[in-house]
């Protein structure tokens, strides 16, 4: 059990709770920070579309990123307004999107009952379940040391995880491995969507950098990265076979077990330069 060290300003998305803590033969009553996990409903032009369990922080980034990486909108300009409304049972994020995107949404409408580890909840058909992202146009390559530096820096850029030990992070790094944007959430997909939304809001070009995540790399993680336009996804854990397949098709370099000087390259290894 993680010890309770109360920060002066705890990060958004954590709560202090009483716990019974055991250390060897000693049992004591103390407090611990725990990550918050709340239902977040996404409404488009008044139509409820998805309910996810997420950390209640950076929700405008989450809504924009989810809308883009799930191909509900074509660009940030298609999202005219975002309003976050708190309620007794959870949080509703209301989005106003372009009419052409709303028509498309209604045509492929699905009901998502999201869970933090969820991938394809509510898909109504096989084509919906496995969508292919666009082929990347970036010719960017990266030094292996840049991946190592990004993963090392990411460990120090997770205040939610430092407080609770119960969250994932997704980061965008430039070609040198310097982290430019980091987002956290109890769900790995949510963290990546928050990152995507933050980058879209800041109008950052993803084609010259890469995404680093503190989780495994699933099909959806690879697809969302390619949709964002980043040519490399580096994950601290393993990858799935479908993620490899999608990465090969999209031109995405997929790296797993990126820890220290080690990493496994599963797709488009030519994007990594190996120095001495």
UniProtKB/TrEMBL annotation:
Main location class: cytoplasm
Keywords, ordered alphabetically: Cytoplasm, Molybdenum cofactor biosynthesis, Transferase
Gene Ontology CC terms, in alphabetical order: cytoplasm
Transferase keyword on record: yes
NCBIfam families cross-referenced by the UniProt entry: fdhD_narQ (TIGR00129)
Sequence intervals crossing the membrane: none
Protein's cellular compartments: Cytoplasm
GO biological process: Mo-molybdopterin cofactor biosynthetic process
Function: Required for formate dehydrogenase (FDH) activity. Acts as a sulfur carrier protein that transfers sulfur from IscS to the molybdenum cofactor prior to its insertion into FDH.
A Pfam family reported for this protein in Swiss-Prot or TrEMBL: FdhD-NarQ
InterPro entries found in the cross-reference section: Cytidine_deaminase-like, FdhD
Name assigned to this protein: Sulfur carrier protein FdhD
One example GO MF annotation: sulfurtransferase activity
UniProt-annotated catalytic positions: 118
Keyword Cytoplasm tagged: yes
Top-level taxon of origin: Bacteria
Similarity-based family: Belongs to the FdhD family.
């Amino acid at each position: 059990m993680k010890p309770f060290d109360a920060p002066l300003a705890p990060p958004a998305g954590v709560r202090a709770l009483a716990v019974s803590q055991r250390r060897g033969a000693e049992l004591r009553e103390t407090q611990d920070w725990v990550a918050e996990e709340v239902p977040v409903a996404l409404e488009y032009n008044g139509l409820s579309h998805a309910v996810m369990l997420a950390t209640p922080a950076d929700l405008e980034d989450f809504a924009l990123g989810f809308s883009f990486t799930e191909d509900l909108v074509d660009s940030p300009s298609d999202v005219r307004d975002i309003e976050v409304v708190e309620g007794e049972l959870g949080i509703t994020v209301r989005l106003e999107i372009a009419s052409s995107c709303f028509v498309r949404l209604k045509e492929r409408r699905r009901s998502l009952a999201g869970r933090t580890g969820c991938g394809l909840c509510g898909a109504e058909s096989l084509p919906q379940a496995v969508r292919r992202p666009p082929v990347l146009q970036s010719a960017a390559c990266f030094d292996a040391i840049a991946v190592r530096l990004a993963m090392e820096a990411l460990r120090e850029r997770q205040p939610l995880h430092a407080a609770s030990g119960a969250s994932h992070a997704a980061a965008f790094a430039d070609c040198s491995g310097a982290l430019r944007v980091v987002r956290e959430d109890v769900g790995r997909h949510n963290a990546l969507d928050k990152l995507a939304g933050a980058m879209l809001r800041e109008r950052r070009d993803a084609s010259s950098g890469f995404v680093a995540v503190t989780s495994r790399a699933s099909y959806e993680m690879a697809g969302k990265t390619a949709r964002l336009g980043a040519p490399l996804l580096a994950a601290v854990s393993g990858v799935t076979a479908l993620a490899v397949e999608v990465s090969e098709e999209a031109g995405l370099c997929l790296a797993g077990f990126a820890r220290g000087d080690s990493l496994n390259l599963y797709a488009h290894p030519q994007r990594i330069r190996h120095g001495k």
